[in-house]
Amino acid sequence: MKKTFLGLAVLTLGLSSCKDFLTVVPKTERTTANFYNTAADFNTALVGAYSTFKHAGLYGSGAGSLIWLGEVSTDNTDYGFPRTGSSVNQFQIEDLTYQVGNDLFRDAWLGHYQGISRTNAVLDRLPAVSFDDALKSQYEGEARFLRAMFYFNLVRLFGPVQLSTTEINDPFAGNTLGRAPVNEVYTLIENDLIVAENILPTTITAANAGRASKWAAKALLGKVYLTQKKYGLAADKLKEIIDANVNSLMPNYADVFLSTTTFANNREVMLAAQYKGGQISQGGGFYTQWTPFSALSPDFGFTNGAGDGVNRPTPNLIAAYPAGDVRKTVSIALSYTSTTGTTVNEPYPTKFLQKGIIRGESDVEFPILRYADVLLMYAEAVNEQSGPNAAALDAVNRIIRRSRNLPVNTPNATVDLAASTSTATLRTRLELERRLELAFESQRWFDLVRTDRFVDVMKAQGKAAQPFHVLYPIPQRETTLNPNLGQNTGY
Question: 405 is in which domain, residue-wise?
Answer without folding.
Answer: 231-268+293-442
